[in-house]
């Protein structure tokens, strides 16, 4: 599978991503942090980025977090896109409340007693 360069316009750095690997996975493997990470399955919307340039394939993403009009503007979830060419991306800042809510949910799921 070919490898592509992903340039992050927000941070000014770049990393390599294989065509069969999600952009989020490639970011994590090289220790890049651009977006919060949630479910890694396209449902939570935390890893939203904007693809400024380049071709990619999309996996399933929640339309609540990426409606068709946002997708048309290049807004996608990093966990569900796979490059088909070199990409230029921008990180989409998350509202502070969304990050706090994610941390609260994560804490609740780890502190619940088993039944």
From TrEMBL:
Q: Which SUPFAM superfamilies match?
A: 2Fe-2S ferredoxin-like
Checking InterPro entries in the record gives: 2Fe-2S_ferredoxin-like_sf (IPR036010), 2Fe-2S_ferredoxin-type (IPR001041), Beta-grasp_dom_sf (IPR012675)
- Please name the Gene3D superfamilies in this protein's record: 3.10.20.30
- A Pfam cross-reference name: Fer2
Q: Where is the 2Fe-2S ferredoxin-type domain?
A: 2-95
Gene Ontology molecular function = iron-sulfur cluster binding
Which PROSITE patterns does the protein's record reference? 2FE2S_FER_2
The name on file for this protein is Ferredoxin
Q: Which organism is it from?
A: Marinobacter persicus
């Amino acid at each position: 599978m070919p490898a592509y360069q992903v340039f992050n316009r927000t941070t000014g750095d770049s990393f390599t991503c294989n065509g069969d690997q999600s952009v989020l996975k490639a970011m994590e493997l090289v220790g890049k942090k651009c977006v919060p990470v949630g479910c890694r399955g396209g449902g939570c919307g935390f890893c939203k980025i904007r693809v400024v340039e380049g071709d990619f394939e999309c996996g399933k993403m929640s339309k609540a977090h990426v409606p068709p009009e946002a997708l048309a503007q290049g807004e996608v979830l990093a966990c569900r896109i796979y490059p088909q060419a070199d990409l230029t991306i921008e990180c989409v800042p998350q509202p502070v409340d969304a990050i706090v809510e994610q941390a609260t949910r994560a804490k609740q799921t780890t502190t619940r007693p088993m039944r």
